[in-house]
Write a structure and sequence with these properties.
About 60% of the residues lie in helices and about 0% in strands. It contains nine helices and two strands, in the order H-E-E-H-H-H-H-H-H-H-H. Helix 2 (about 45-55) runs parallel beside helix 5 and helix 7 packs across helix 9. By secondary structure, it is an all-alpha fold. It is globular and about 60 Å long. Strands 1-2 form a two-stranded antiparallel sheet.
């Protein structure tokens, strides 16, 4: 009987020695995950570096492709914060994003208006001007109107007026 158990015991020892390394637990009892296996956060700096290296069109295709289906959602969430670097990403992508991607970017720019109206207006000026999608009219946009109205930069005066025209226009529904 012991001879039959020997191969089984040998296999168990070999399996234990060949199994992948498990994550370790630190002295506080918290699991330590190696840096190379942690998910990476998509930052505006990372996207801008990709754009500089590969071009906006290629980077947009990668972020909207099957490799990372949620990549573009991360971009629009970043743009919606009004952060200056994310607005640079929006400026690079706006002429290329169409369909649902264009609408998502426009919605993110609209959300960013209340946080960084001068930055958003600069993006709009550099990429063809304001539109109904980026400066939506609505019953709840008083904050956006106030933010755009407060912009005093003379270089943004024309796009400011365009945006205010859409913001205060008739509500579509």
């Amino acid at each position: 009987m012991s001879i039959r158990l020997l191969p089984l015991a040998l296999c168990a020892v070999l399996a234990t020695g060949c199994s992948p390394r498990t994550d370790t637990i630190d002295e506080t009892g918290t699991e330590v995950v190696p840096a190379e296996t942690r998910p990476q956060v998509l930052t505006a700096d990372h996207v801008l570096n990709l754009i500089a290296a590969d071009g906006a069109g290629h980077t947009l295709a990668v972020l909207t492709g099957p490799a990372d289906p949620s990549g573009y959602d991360k971009v629009t969430a970043g743009v919606a914060t009004g952060d200056g670097q994310w607005l640079q990403v929006a400026q690079a992508f706006r002429p290329l994003a169409d369909g649902l991607y264009g609408e998502g970017l426009s919605d993110a720019l609209y959300q960013a208006l209340t946080k960084n109206a001068p930055g958003v207006l600069a993006v709009l000026k550099a990429t063809g001007g304001a539109s109904e999608l980026t400066c939506e009219s609505g019953t709840e946009n008083a904050t956006a109107v106030a933010a755009v109205t407060a912009v005093t930069d003379p270089a943004l005066a024309e796009v400011k007026q365009e945006c205010l025209g859409y913001l205060s226009g008739p509500i579509e529904g």
